[in-house]
Amino acid sequence: MNMNLREQLKQLRLSGLLQTLEVRLQEAKSSKLDYAEFLELILEDEMVVRSDRQIERRTKAAAFRDQKCLDDFDFDFNKSVKRKQIYDLAAGDFVRKHHDAIFVGPPGVGKSHIVQSIGRQLIRDGYTVYYRSIFDCVRDFLHDEAFEGHDRILNRYLKPDVLILDDMGMKQLPKKSGEFLFEIIMRRHELRSTMMTSNRPLEDWGKLIGDVPSATAILDRFLQSAEVIQITGRSFRLRGHRADKKTDQAAVDEAETEPENELKTGQSKTGHKRPPGRPKKTTKKPAN
Q: Is the C or the N end of the chain the one with fewer CB within 10 Å?
């Protein structure tokens, strides 16, 4: 490739084409591609690179807490999580309809993993996503309100195609939380999609927010077109811990039953017989 062509591609910011042009030129010669076929190949290379970079930028902007994907989720561990239901959400039809979704269940059952994984898939399909824990969301508004930045921070929550609010119910929210959350839900209602996770039943939201009217208004709008996914079962975080406890308990049970078995068989775990007990002494009567 001559230097003049290289510089022109750089000025046009066609870095994807630049990376593969040498290989495509050789391919065109060996396969005897016509001009249209060759042009299609090099333009496809450029589009792939641009798409990858866009996904990388959107993933960074989403601010996910964990690097999770659906392929990492163990659907066999917790049968209450329906694979088809989750993959249907990841397909994005609810986003196109401007519907919402909420996952309700105890801590550790995989809610955060699932919503972040769905968010990553939606980014690959061309949507914008923003992830935030519910507590960090409220803290953002409280911080920026003090510096008169309310409109700026609100736009951050209103602009994405999909907003993910995670961990409702993990801790008591500060005052005015209900006002902030209500404004987000109200402004996004029927215009953008929102996914939420809750560790507490929905009827407890009034206490968590400290504002029953706001909680009622939030749920009234949110649940109008939301898919509610109830998750029950064991905690993924305690999976290894419980297995260790079962192993330890089995060892204790075995240790406790061993002496009893030895008494019955007269044989220890190593296979050696116990020495017999001393014979009972008898006193011979003198002969007459």
A: C
* Amino acid in the structure at residue 266: G
Length in residues, the chain: 288
Output the CA angle 166-191-83, nearest 5 degrees: 50
Structure tokens at 286: 């003198």
> Would you state the structure tokens that stand for residue 103, as one six-digit string?
């996952």
Parallel/antiparallel/unpaired status of strands 226-230 and 129-133: unpaired
Residues 77 and 25 in one domain: no
Distance separating alpha carbons of residues 215 and 222, to the nearest angstrom: 10
Measured between alpha carbons, how far is residue 24 from residues 9, 32, 49, 90, 245 in Å? 15, 11, 15, 35, 59
In a domain? residue 42: yes
Q: Are residues 156 and 213 in the same domain?
A: yes
- For the record, the structure tokens of 85 come out as 């239901």
Last residue of a domain, which of 40, 61, 82? 61
Burial of residue 259 (CB within 10 Å: 0-12, 13-18, 19+) is exposed
* Token duo for residue 267: 């044989």
Q: What is the pLDDT of residues 94-153, one digit of tens each?
A: 999 999 999 999 999 999 999 999 999 999 999 999 999 999 999 998 886 656 667 889
**Domain, as residue range, for 53:** 3-61
Work out whether the CA dihedral 44, 47, 53, 59 comes out positive or negative.
Answer: negative
Q: Cα–Cα distance between 187 and 235 in angstroms, integer?
A: 35
Predicted pLDDT of residue 275: 45
> For residue 58, how many other CB atoms are within 10 A of its CB?
20
CA distance 169 to 200: 5
pLDDT at residue 43 above 80?
Answer: yes
Global pTM exceeds 0.70: yes
How far is it, in rounded angstroms, from Cα 20 to Cα 38? 12
